[in-house]
Amino acid sequence: MIPVREAVAGVQAYGLLPGDRRKMIRMDLNENAWGCSPRVLEALQEIAPEDIGVYPYYADFLAEIARVNNVSEDNLVLSNGADDIIRTIMQVFVDAGEKVLVADPSFGIIALHAQIVGAELCKMPYEDDLNFPLEKCLQELPSAKLLAIVRPDSPTGTFISRENLQLILAAAPNCIVMLDETYHHFLGESCLDLLESYPNLIIIQSFSKAYALAGLRIGLAFAQREVVGELRKVALPFAVNALAVKAGMAALRDTDYLAMTIREMKAEKAWLREQFDKLGYDSRDSFANFILVNIGERADEIAELLKSENVYVKNLNKMDLLKGWYRMTINRRPENEKLLSVIKGTMP
Known about the structure:
Number of domains: 2
Strand order of the largest sheet: 2-8-7-6-5-3-4
Helix content: 25-40%
Number of strands: 12
């Protein structure tokens, strides 16, 4: 076999589970269990042959995103999900050997793409209370080319304050701060208003979570015009397909459905935590669409039992900071009751 690049040789491919997806209760991927807006399905039913036979048209979609977020279209780049825009940002700004900072644990795709470009990856452990490692970050910033922050973070569920974020942005004007806001709808707050003041800030958002369009892969980045111009040099010209554009437009316009799904998810989250409290398990809330539950020493064993019942959780047992804990996406009541039933069956 022809040798691959050294930076790629040590990369582990993303594993995909086999089997019938519809039979699985996936509480490990932070998907939206309430599904997309009915308007999305209506829009997809209106797809015509000419919509598929030509390359996608983005003007109206970009204009709608800009309107909803109160920015200019020149501040936007579309991508094939948040993963793709992370790849693009790394390729545009990070040379081999340059330092990339990321709090740990966090979204694994960030470290993956840093490794692929040959960056020096510096993982900064979260504090014991799962707060962002601000002091460590400020120490490392002067020698860093890019800092990745997920707000709110997964799997910790916590988020850096706006004040601390601005402190970082001001302290490192020559370091790109890549702020992943994939879960910002659940937090109820975005930092898009900071873009005008900080040319080193790039904000990533996604349609996968709150809008429940994970299967259609729509991501985007917001930045100042000059930064967007550089990103567009590397971004795929037609990264988002025509069906996704139709669906994304419909999802953006159904604000009532978006609010309803967030409201119902939060109510179900509170109920699920109550059930774990009654069972004697320690749980932690998050500012996203999941909770953390401390299963303890039997975490690996119980995760396998859950899997045998087609219930999948994110087992964090290999992480020192979260040893014995699961991250569990909030699902609807029947799926949550199935989870609880299996766990109850493991108790003495």
